[in-house]
UniProtKB/TrEMBL annotation:
Molecular function as annotated in GO: polysaccharide transmembrane transporter activity
Protein name per Swiss-Prot or TrEMBL: Exopolysaccharide production protein ExoF
InterPro entries, per database record: HH_AprE-like, Poly_export, Poly_export_N, Soluble_ligand-bd
UniProt domain Soluble ligand binding: residue ranges: 133-168
Keywords on record: Signal
Pfam families from the UniProt entry: HH_AprE, Poly_export, SLBB
Domain annotation AprE-like long alpha-helical hairpin: ranges: 179-359
Species this chain originates from: Phyllobacterium bourgognense
Keyword field contains Ribonucleoprotein: no
Length: 426
């Protein structure tokens, strides 16, 4: 039999499989597509104007027995000012306030209704670019900036250049910029530390991630561990599903071998009986007591049975070969996983080394700035430190609200960060 692979599934299953077997592997493929779809923190995020999404549609072609992607619809789309997505065939989709999964279901339903499809197509929607945030007020470069998950007020102000550069505030600005960069690098460093711990746990086939010693006292340690645990579980489920599929395939071939062996046993018994009958009348045929047509018929039956036995033996050998291939594929999956983990660990360790260097550099920059601006820490000539006041303007449910914030406040896409220097205190 022809070995099964993802490419052979997409181009049509081998004809030797039953309908039930083919549908089993189609189901496995769909589950794999779901597992490899972007998971993430944005699963419950409600889309809004200026968000950019990547849409993919795959349809099962019953007549051809294959999956086909819709290139006309697949691509990147941006949510319009009115909160809608305009798609070929699917039409206008109201995306504002909906999650990606809700939009995917609506796209699939619209396509089926409008095109009269017998099967519901599979649609996936992934956020490729969030709507930007805006920084205004007392910053060096007010304007629009790309949003990133877990973005804080401090990071947004750092992107905007920090405090405006004036003669009296230059060194304070240098200090706060260096401190802002330092805090951002610390966050990236912590994430890399936890990622390395997750990779080590995966390589050791452990079920939990050990909290690194240098993060035990940090308040964000649990959140970072939970994020990496979610990734680890997803990757493990994906691997388990692939191995389960290979094991099920080996079970199918094992059952087929058992069935072939039973057929071979029956065929051998029939062959033995026919040969005995042929031997018993062989002497009579030599004496002319049995007609030659009967003798010829028995000889033909023996030849046919021997041919069928040979076919059954060949089919059994092929099934055993497929079991060996499936076992090898399982070994290859494990080897590829270990190689991938090793590569990721090297890259993560390199990122940690780089962040350590940047942390030390920013410490030096802060120290240098404080030499000329000790007031930044409330020391020196007794003056108060420069005080930054922050607020966030956010559109929620059609209403615009402004709330006070601090440097650690988490931002959402579309937020406007207002920055003001408290001149009365500074």
């Amino acid at each position: 039999m022809t070995p099964i692979s993802p490419s052979s599934v997409c181009s049509g299953m081998p004809s030797g499989f039953t309908a039930a077997t083919r549908w089993f592997f189609y189901g496995c493929l769909l589950l794999l597509m779901m597992l490899f779809a972007p998971a993430a923190h944005a699963a419950d995020y409600a889309l809004g104007p200026m968000d950019k999404v990547t849409i993919r549609v795959v349809e099962w072609q019953t007549a051809e027995g294959a999956f086909r992607e819709w290139p006309t619809i697949t691509g990147d789309y941006r949510v319009g000012p009115s909160g809608t997505l305009s798609l070929p065939f699917a039409g206008e989709i109201a995306a504002g306030g909906k999650t990606t999964s809700e939009i995917a279901k609506e796209i699939a339903t619209n396509l089926r209704q409008k095109l009269g499809l017998s099967d519901l197509p599979e649609a996936s929607v992934e956020i490729s670019e969030f709507r930007p945030i805006f920084v205004s007020g007392d910053v060096q470069t007010p304007g629009k900036y790309a949003f990133e998950p877990e973005m804080t007020v401090l990071k947004a102000v750092s992107l905007a250049g920090g405090m405006p550069r004036t003669a009296g505030q230059r060194f304070e600005r240098d200090y706060f910029n260096a401190r802002g960069d330092y805090d951002v690098i610390v966050a990236e460093h912590d994430r890399a530390v936890v990622k390395l711990a997750r990779l080590q746990a995966e390589l050791a086939n452990e079920q939990e991630i050990k909290v690194p010693d240098n993060l035990i006292e940090k308040s964000n340690a649990k959140r970072l561990i939970d994020d990496e645990m979610a990734i680890m579980r997803t990757r493990k489920n994906s691997l388990d599903l692939q191995i389960s599929g290979l094991n099920d395939l080996k079970t199918l071939y094992t059952n087929e071998i058992s069935s072939l062996e039973k057929k071979m046993g029956v065929q051998n018994r029939q062959l033995d009986l026919t040969r005995k009958q042929l031997n018993s009348i062989g002497g009579l045929a030599d004496q002319g007591l049995v007609v030659n047509s009967r003798l010829l018929g028995l000889q033909t039956s023996v030849a046919d049975m021997e041919g069928k036995l040979l076919d059954l033996d060949t089919a059994s050998l092929r099934a055993k070969q497929e079991i060996s291939k499936s076992t090898q594929s399982e070994t290859d999956l494990d080897n590829e996983r270990k190689a991938e983990l090793a590569t990721e660990m090297q890259a993560t360790q390199a990122a940690l080394d780089e962040s350590n260097f940047k942390l030390q550099m920013n410490k030096n920059l802060m120290t240098e700035a404080l030499v000329s601006a000790p007031a930044a820490l409330g020391r020196g000539n007794g003056s108060d430190p420069v005080v930054m006041q922050y607020s966030i303007v956010r559109n929620s449910n059609g209403k615009t609200e402004e709330t006070t914030a601090d440097e650690g406040t988490i931002l959402l896409p579309g937020d406007v960060v207002k920055v003001k220097i408290d001149t009365e205190r500074s």
